[in-house]
Predict the structure.
Amino acid sequence: MRPRVVLGFSGGVDSAVAARLLTMQGWDVRCVYLETGSGEGEYARESAERMGLPFEAVDARALLEREVCAPFEAAYLAGATPSPCVLCNRRVKLKLLCEAADALGIERIATGHYAAARAGAIFRGRPENDQSYMLCLVTRAQARRLVLPLGGYIKRDVRALAAQFGLSQAEKPDSMEICFIKGGSFDEWIDSRGRAPGEGALIYRGERVGTHGGVHRYTLGQRRGLGFAAGRRVFVSEIRPETNEVVLSDGDGLYMEHIRTGEANWLITPPRGDFRCEVRVRHSRDLTLATARSVDGALEIDFDKPVRAPVPGQAAALYAGGMLIAGGIIAP
């Protein structure tokens, strides 16, 4: 009997190629589409049917609103910059895939993330498209069940495979949007929910120099779209939601040698005392060597060299030997 796996299936090129690769590797694949309101459900169903794969749609909208959308809005209104996909993978995507698998008596789940899974551990994918950062908050139980067929590929390879397999997704454009925000920007989405604070003061060297459209439109380290230039190269250095002020500087304080996270999420048994690791503080290729430790359930991280604008609300992902070992949300 072939081993069975439940695949998170959006109908895009990544999940379609993941489905075909899993089938070629001998898996009995069951496709589960998570309905978030994107309008792609029927396309996903038709794609699975063309591939001859069982398909099920699960309504994720209420869970997504509670566990991702509302915290996303609240974080921006508090002056932070959240990582919605990092939260979603643990609280919505893998949670619902595990529940769907449990209902079918299936142990393993799969996604189209560009990362590798071996022996219950998660490893970085190839640098060009590595998405392991997005998995830094998943639980150890979720990680043990995870199969990641795209771990050895980059996007160009996957599109070539889609064409080779005769999949219609070979030419389907990538989605560049957050799944719950369609046809606009995140700040417009927050405005539409009715709690945005409105205009406030831009502060530079202690003086008001202009007006901004709401603190939720800014992030630490931002340089573009500030509405205040006068020949100066200025950056957002502080966001004050309590007074609805955005503070600008010439770049002072953007680089940090130390950060603290909220509660640490461990994918290994936590080391005792100080330990060496590599750290990623945003979804990018940049990794910085650091010394870290667990303190009162949080992570304290000292970088070997200063890191530019590690932003509260974003995730910090920790690695050892290419293996994802822990994650946490950067604290103010």
